[in-house]
Design brief:
Length: 336
C-alpha cells in the first residue's frame, strides 16, 4: 500500500471513530472568565440571550453574548459555583467579553477577571464520548445535559462540562495546563482505541455537522437567529442587551439568512453564492471531502434561497463560476 493510501485509510478510521465511537481533540488555548459578586447571575441574565434565572451552584447553561444590535460576540458556557461563575469562551474572545460586560457594570456587585492563562482544555467527542469519559476519569457523566458539569476527585481536579459537539456528544475537559497535559499523555497512549483528531479532521466533522465557529460563522456580522442559535435565545425572560432587535426579527419574520451546507468542486472562504445572477450568500468555512477532490462548506444563504438539495452557482474572487448544491444541516459527505 502506498504512503498516500495508508494515510487516507488512517484518516477514514479516525473520522469514523469520532462519529461512531470516541476521539479527542486539543483546542488552541482556553478562554475562561471568572465572575464574582452577589449579582453575577442576575447581571449575566440581563446581558445575554438565554434564561439564567434557574442556574444553581453545580449547574450550567449555554448562552450567547451579543452586542446592542444583537450581533454575536460568542457562545459561552456558564458554570455556576458556590462563590463564582465560570464562563467558558473561545480563546480569542475572553478579553473582548470582559471589556464588553464591564461597560454595563454600574451598581451591580459583579467582578470580572480573565483567568484564561490558568486553564487548559481537551475535548472528548463522539457517539460514545460519555463512555470514554467514564473510563478515563471513573466518573459517570451520562446524566449531564448541555452546560452541566462536574469536578473529578483526582489529585489535580479537572472540570468536565457537556458541550454541543461533533458526533452528537462532547465534553470539554478543563483544568490547569499541567493537569490537562497529563490527560493528553494518557490519551496519546491509546491511539487505536481512542484516536486523536487533527485540526483538519475536526474541521471536516464540524462543517458536516454545521457547528458554527468563532471568526467564521459566529461573528458580529450575524445574529443568533441566523446562526441557528434559537435554542439559546429566550423570548419570555424580559429585557436584555440586544433583546429588542431579536424580538423584532422573530415577530416580523425578518431573519434574512440562515446557515446552510454547500457541496462543490472548488470553494474558498468568501466565495459568493449566486442564484439567477443575484447574490444570495457567502461561504464562511471550507473543508475537503473524503475523496480528496470535492469540497464541503458552510455558508450564510438568503432565506428565500435556502432550500435543500438545489443547484447553486459558486463565484470566486476572480469571477470564475461553477455549480454546487445547497444542503440543510447536518449534511452528508457523498464521496466518503
Amino acid at each position: 500500500m502506498s504512503t498516500s493510501n495508508a494515510s487516507q485509510v488512517l484518516r477514514q478510521s479516525v473520522l469514523d471513530s469520532a462519529q461512531q465511537a470516541a476521539a479527542w481533540y486539543t483546542t488552541i488555548g482556553c478562554g475562561m472568565i471568572a465572575m464574582r459578586g452577589a449579582d453575577r447571575m442576575d447581571f449575566l441574565h440581563r446581558m445575554t440571550t438565554n434564561d439564567l434565572t434557574h442556574v444553581k451552584p453545580g449547574g450550567g447553561k449555554q448562552t450567547v453574548v451579543v452586542t446592542e444590535k444583537a450581533r454575536i460576540i460568542d457562545v459561552v458556557t456558564v458554570m455556576q459555583r458556590e462563590d463564582e461563575a465560570l464562563l467558558l469562551t473561545d480563546s480569542s474572545t475572553s478579553d473582548r467579553i470582559v471589556r464588553w460586560l464591564r461597560k454595563y457594570v454600574i451598581m451591580d456587585d459583579v467582578k470580572l477577571t480573565d483567568v484564561s492563562t490558568d486553564w487548559s482544555r481537551l475535548d472528548v467527542v463522539g457517539e460514545h464520548a460519555s463512555n470514554a469519559i467514564t473510563e478515563l476519569f471513573d466518573v459517570d457523566v451520562h446524566h449531564l445535559g448541555i452546560g452541566d458539569w462536574l469536578t473529578t476527585t483526582a489529585e489535580q481536579p479537572l472540570t468536565i462540562v457537556r458541550i454541543p459537539s461533533i458526533g452528537n456528544c462532547g465534553y470539554a475537559v478543563l483544568g490547569s495546563p499541567q493537569s490537562v497535559d497529563a490527560v493528553r499523555d494518557v490519551c496519546m497512549a491509546n491511539p487505536l482505541s481512542f484516536p486523536h483528531l487533527t485540526d483538519d479532521e475536526y474541521e471536516y466533522l464540524r462543517i458536516l455537522d454545521g457547528l458554527g465557529k468563532i471568526g467564521n460563522e459566529l461573528t458580529e456580522a450575524y445574529n443568533p437567529l441566523e446562526a441557528g442559535l434559537l435554542h439559546l435565545t429566550s423570548f419570555t425572560k424580559g429585557c436584555y442587551i440586544g433583546q429588542e432587535v431579536i424580538a423584532r426579527l422573530d415577530s416580523y419574520n425578518k431573519v434574512k439568512q440562515r446557515l446552510m451546507g454547500v457541496r462543490g468542486l472548488s470553494m474558498e472562504v468568501g466565495d459568493e453564492l449566486v442564484e439567477d445572477n443575484n447574490l444570495v450568500g457567502h461561504i464562511t468555512s471550507v473543508t475537503t471531502a473524503r475523496d480528496g477532490n470535492h469540497m464541503l462548506a458552510l455558508a450564510y444563504v438568503r432565506q428565500s434561497s435556502a432550500n435543500n438539495n438545489i443547484p447553486i452557482t459558486i463565484r470566486n474572487a476572480h469571477g470564475i463560476e461553477h455549480q454546487g448544491t445547497l444542503h440543510l444541516l447536518p449534511m452528508v459527505d457523498p464521496w466518503q
